[in-house]
Write a structure and sequence with these properties.
- It contains six helices and no strands.
- The chain is mostly helical and 179 residues long.
- It has a single domain, classed as Ferritin, core subunit, four-helix bundle (Ferritin, Up-down Bundle).
- The termini are far apart.
- The mean pLDDT is 91.
- Keywords: Iron, Iron storage, Metal-binding.
- One of its GO terms (biological process) is intracellular iron ion homeostasis.
- This is Ferritin-like domain-containing protein.
- InterPro entries: Dps-like (IPR014490), Ferritin-like (IPR012347), Ferritin-like_diiron (IPR009040), Ferritin-like_SF (IPR009078), Ferritin_DPS_dom (IPR008331).
């Protein structure tokens, strides 16, 4: 008995679902992917550069902050470095899922990053630089989420989750800022 070629009662396009079995070389990207894949990959590679630079900045701050009253800040720098590395890993994995190539090229890292590197020696300058970088990341992710809209729900959800952590980081750095 031949299966029906009409949509299910739920309104699904059965033919499109069946066509998803074709083009196996496209991996996770089916014909229903609505975003501009190359534009999303480019955005994600810039976000990857930003996250990698943030890892380096937080690691530097972790290793160079000193003083008897900076233990909590030192621990915060390390925690943030680890979380930024997790963000970078998630972004790189998503780029691969979209049939792209994650750009880890150190020669172009700072040019592609939305945030800046910081080599301050002063503790409060470190905190200020990290707060600025977090605010830059927050705005960058907000704009990426808006640009993607509902065309790529997986990438959008990942960016929303990363944005929430970046907001926590900004709040943490704000708490350490001496006014």
């Amino acid at each position: 008995m031949e299966q029906s070629k009409t949509p299910l009662a739920h309104g699904f396009d059965i033919e499109a679902i069946r066509r998803a079995a074709a083009n196996l070389d496209d991996g996770a990207v089916t014909e229903g992917y609505a975003a501009d894949r190359e534009a999303v990959i480019a955005m994600l590679n810039d976000a990857l550069a930003t996250e990698l630079l943030c890892v380096l900045r937080y690691k530097r701050h972790y290793f160079t902050v000193s003083g008897p009253n900076n233990g909590a800040l030192k621990a915060e720098f390390l925690e943030h470095a680890q979380q930024e590395q997790d963000h970078a890993d998630r972004i790189a994995e998503r780029i691969v899922q979209l049939n792209g190539s994650p750009n880890f090229n150190p020669a172009t890292l700072t040019a592609r990053s939305h945030a800046e590197y910081d080599d301050s020696e002063d503790t409060q300058a470190m905190v200020r630089a990290d707060l600025i970088a977090e605010r830059v990341a927050i705005e960058s992710y907000r704009q990426m989420i808006q640009a993607i809209g509902d065309k790529d729900p997986t990438t959008k959800q990942m960016l929303i989750e990363i944005l929430a952590v970046e907001e926590e980081h900004a709040d943490d750095m704000h708490d350490f800022l001496v006014r």
